[in-house]
Amino acid sequence: MGEDGNTSAFNISYTNFFLVGFPGLHERRPLLVLPLTFLYVTIISANGLVIHTVVGQRNLHQPMYVLIALLLAVNICAATAVMPKMLEGFVHYANPISLHGCLAQMFFIYFTLLLDYNLLLAMALDRYMAICHPLRYTDLMTSRLLGMLAILALTRNLGVAVPLVVLTSRAQFCRTAVIRHFTCEYIALLSIACGDLTFNNRLGLAMRLVTVTFDLALLGTSYTRIIYVAFRISSGKARAKALHTCGSHFLVILTIYLSGLSTSIVFRVTKTVSQDVQNLLSAIYLLLPGALNPVIYGVRTREIQEHVEKMLCGKESAQEVREKPKRLQNRRVDGKLPG
User: Fold this and answer.
1) Is the pLDDT of residue 319 over 70?
2) pTM of the full predicted structure?
3) What's the average model confidence in pLDDT over 2-6?
4) Which of 39, 21, 36 is nearest to 93 (CA)?
């Protein structure tokens, strides 16, 4: 053993690991399988229901609803990148995973997380155009613009996720083969690495700070302008609708950013927090958005809520109720119904 208490003196680097999430629970870990399976099924079902509603209703084929559907699709991908392996680890105490598998999981976790950030920025742009420039909205929010935003988002995601994965792949994992976490997060992998990891730690923190600071600055500027313009709208109904829509987006922003920031701060600043608490915070920021986002958009977005109620309960939407007398009148005019 070397002076630092690891096996670096023998130039050993593990390439196969064991994920052990919530290690403090010991034999009670299998009790988490049922509630977490229910959570996973709920995430897929709730997000899938809203996505199906947006795809199936032609009047929802607008940029705002398409972006919501994309955000919920990312929620499903993020949960799928984490939950199956997490559940397997609770069935078996030691959950084996290779280094390549670990790096692939880490890539998908951060790629989907950055997709969330990018979609929130696109939603802010969409609402800014719709409320601040309503007469030019259809001319500005074109499929070409959305395609350019998609390319920028892909470039940004790869520019952040790939360097983290490459740096991690070059580290020497000689402390232990046991990762005391349910997933292969960047910090969890670095905790079992040996050697000088100063650059890795600083790069991870810098990327987190730059990404979050840049995003929050753009989001804050956009929604400040949106709220200012909304309060100047003369129609009370239009003003209330604009603020209500922005309120839904704001709730989602708080859910995603606050959960991620709190986890990052605890991991890097607080040394006395137990491993189980760190695991719990990671589970919250990885899974909470997927559980809450379909509820926020399904309940607070009237157009989506009405179509979901119709699908589940057979209830007519308000738009169909308003259009029904007009359809009946047209049928009378055509001679299909008696006057």
Assistant:
1) no
2) 0.84
3) 42
4) 21
**290 and 75 Cβ atoms separated by less than 8 Å:** yes
Two structure tokens written together for 66: 């398409």
Rounded CA gap, 337 and 329, in Å? 9
Q: What is the DSSP string of 246-287?
A: HHHHHHHHHHHHHHHHHHHHHHHH-SSS-HHHHHHHHHHHHH
Which is it for strands 178-179 and 95-98: parallel, antiparallel or unpaired? unpaired
State how far the Cα of 110 lies from the Cα of 149, in Å rounded to an integer. Answer: 19
Whole-number Å distance between alpha carbons of 286 and 260: 8
Q: Which residues are CB-neighbours of 298 under 8 A, at least 6 positions away?
A: 46, 49, 50, 304, 305, 308
Assess whether pLDDT exceeds 90 at residue 106: yes
Alpha carbons 286 and 181: distance in angstroms, whole number: 13
The DSSP symbol for 172 reads B
C-alpha 90: how far from chain center:
24
Displacement of CA 278 from its chain's centroid (Å): 19
Total residues belonging to the chain: 339
| Residue found by looking up tokens 């007469």 in the block | 135
CA–CA dist 107, 38 (Å, integer) = 26
C-alpha distances out from residue 191 to 5, 69, 173, 273, 317, Å? 14, 36, 9, 15, 53
Ordered strands of the 178-179 beta sheet: 95-98, 16-19, 178-179
Cα(69)–Cα(48) distance, integer angstroms: 9
Q: Are 46 and 111 in contact (CB under 8 A)?
A: no
Task: Check residues 248 and 106 and name the one with the higher pLDDT.
Answer: 106
Tell me how far apart the alpha carbons of residues 268 and 259 are, in angstroms, rounded to a whole number. Answer: 15
pLDDT digit string, tens, across residues 259-292: 877 777 777 666 677 888 888 888 988 999 999 9
Average pLDDT over residues 204-221: 89
Phi-psi group of 22: left, alpha or beta (phi > 0 → left; psi -120 to 50 → alpha; rest → beta): left
| Separation CA 299–CA 93 (nearest Å) | 39
